[in-house]
Automatic annotation (TrEMBL):
SUPFAM superfamilies named among the record's database cross-references: YhbY-like
Keyword Ligase: no
Protein name listed in UniProt: RNA-binding protein
Organism: Virgibacillus necropolis
InterPro entries from the UniProt entry: RNA-binding_CRM, RNA-binding_domain, RNA-binding_YhbY, YhbY-like_sf
Keyword rRNA processing part of the UniProt annotation: no
The entry's keywords: RNA-binding
Domain CRM: 1-96
Protein origin, superkingdom: Bacteria
Length: 96
């Protein structure tokens, strides 16, 4: 579980990130969750964009992604979700 200070730190880091995944009409599927897990292992912090044609609510999409990838939800802002998961092998981010 992330503290408020850690979330603030990660939000500041995520500010300049571009979304690397998009959730569209189909919503969240197993393949997407697997790819997001792999990306989190490499990058630790990623931004995911929810497209206008997505049928599910963004809160539901975020909870499915967090549950499937075993990551921490940093923030939902607009149509973007920021996820963090500490990497086992590629540690880049030192949390305060």
């Amino acid at each position: 579980m992330l503290t408020g200070k850690q979330k603030r730190f990660l939000r500041a880091k995520a500010n300049q990130l571009k979304p690397i995944f998009q959730v569209g009409k189909v919503g969240v599927n197993d393949n997407m969750v697997e790819q997001i897990s792999e990306a989190l292992e490499k990058r630790e912090l990623i931004k995911i964009s929810i497209l206008q044609n997505c049928m599910e609510e963004k809160d539901i999409v975020a909870s499915e992604l967090v549950e499937g990838s075993d990551a921490e939800l940093v923030q939902i802002i607009g149509n973007n979700i920021v996820l963090y998961k500490e990497s086992r092998e590629n540690k880049h981010i030192q949390l305060p």
